[in-house]
């Protein structure tokens, strides 16, 4: 299944190379396999199929976000 068919079926738009988070694990989209999006999670060499409804594009886990607000001293 292509990215276009996934967009039509699930209403979600993805591209190869997009950074995503699935179940709290960050990774990179590598392709599609009917009807899943393949994701290579950080620290892994092989991509795995993920449900398109469980992917969050461009998101990062809260624990890894840097603190941007200066703390009062």
List keywords for this structure.
73 residues; five-stranded antiparallel beta sheet
Write up this protein.
This protein is mostly beta strands and 73 residues long. Helices cover 11% and strands 34% of the residues. It has one helix at 3-10; strands at 19-22, 25-33, 36-41, 48-50, 55-57. Strands 4-3-2-1-5 form a five-stranded antiparallel sheet, with no helix packed on it. The longest helix has 8 residues, at 3-10.
Q: What is the topology?
A:
Layout (H helix, E strand, L loop, with lengths): L2 H8 L8 E4 L2 E9 L2 E6 L6 E3 L4 E3 L16
Antiparallel strand pairs: 1-2, 1-5, 2-3, 3-4
What is the structure about, briefly put?
11% of the residues lie in helices and 34% in strands. The chain is mainly beta. The longest helix has 8 residues, at 3-10.
